[in-house]
Specification:
Structural class: alpha+beta
Helix content: 25-40%
CATH topology of the largest domain: Collagenase (Catalytic Domain)
CATH architecture of the largest domain: 3-Layer(aba) Sandwich
Order of helices and strands: HEHEEHHHHHEEEEEEEE
Number of domains: 2
Shape: elongated
CATH superfamily of the largest domain: Metalloproteases ("zincins"), catalytic domain
Length: 293
């Protein structure tokens, strides 16, 4: 199919981006992408393929078809992506600061994600796929894309390059409510976090808090139990150490509300054992903003 000139996306750039997405998808699933054909379509063509392959009437953004290797082909991922250019043009204006070219690349990233076995049947799976694919899109660098295009067979087997989009930072206000200690005053202050996603479910983050005359550092894990496109609840677990030498286990729940692809509002409710050398539990509430690098 035709690639509209007003998209500002030349075919070599599209091919290089597809190679990048294939390499990221292959590294995530530990598979080798051998050959993937990207076919550009309009709504009418997408509707025809949709009915022919999946038995579903109506056009869609991208249709994925994976094939088994046939001897003497080596094992790996072979497939086709039927990408709807017309749908990309229609959908792009609905996103702030978005272009038809970015929307088209997002469809290709989504198709590559599906080829490696990713599934979006549930809202949580869909949200995880979307976050991952937007990260791939942010990670597109012309030099890296050209290198991956030139060495596509090697790139598919190579270790995934550094995922800076997995890192995040947050800042917010904190209210600590001591329970069972000598000092029953509420302590207000600020909390700072830097984290990194180990996989699609689990993140590790370092925390620092300054609460009037008390300061502390913490290390904790963050686990997503389910998620939607906007609201994304999680559990936290770890330990917090304070300047008086007290170290206590920490656990809690929280919620991200995603404002866009990078910014989120974050809410945390946590309980810590042993703050201010007291055996009682200490409860903390915090709210702030978070940015994904």
């Amino acid at each position: 199919g035709e690639l509209p000139r007003d998209f500002g996306l030349a075919r070599p750039k599209l091919k290089a981006a597809a190679a990048c997405f294939a390499a990221r998808s292959a590294a995530r699933a530990r598979q080798i992408f051998r050959e993937v054909t990207v076919i550009l379509q309009n709504d009418a063509e997408s509707d025809e393929v949709h009915r022919g392959i999946l038995g579903v009437e109506g056009a869609t953004d991208v249709i994925t078809q994976r094939y088994d290797a046939l001897p003497p082909e080596p094992p790996g991922v072979y497939g086709e992506l039927y990408v709807n250019v017309e749908r990309a043009r229609q959908a792009a204006p609905k996103r702030r600061g978005w272009s038809p070219a970015k929307e088209l690349l997002l469809y290709i990233a989504h198709g590559m994600d599906h080829l490696s076995g990713a599934d979006d049947q549930s809202p949580a799976d869909y949200a995880r796929m979307r976050r991952r694919e937007l990260g791939w899109l942010k990670g597109l660098v012309p030099g890296v894309a050209a290198l991956l295009l030139a060495w596509a067979p090697l790139a598919a087997q190579a270790q995934e390059e550094e995922d800076w989009e997995r890192a995040y930072g947050s800042v917010g206000g904190t209210l600590v409510l001591p329970q069972g200690g000598v000092d029953m005053r509420r302590l207000g202050g600020a909390a700072f976090r830097l984290g990194y996603y180990v996989d699609d479910f689990l993140a590790v983050e370092a925390c620092a808090a300054a609460l009037e005359n008390v300061a502390g550092l913490g290390l904790q894990g963050l686990w997503h139990w389910w998620g939607y496109e906007k609201a994304d609840p999680f559990f936290t677990f770890g330990a917090t150490g304070w300047i008086d030498g007290t170290v206590g286990p920490t656990g809690g729940i929280g919620l991200f509300y995603h404002l866009d692809d990078w910014w989120s509002v974050r809410f945390d409710a946590q309980a810590t054992l042993g703050l201010d050398s007291s055996p009682g539990m200490v409860y903390a509430l915090s709210a702030g903003v978070q940015y994904a690098f």
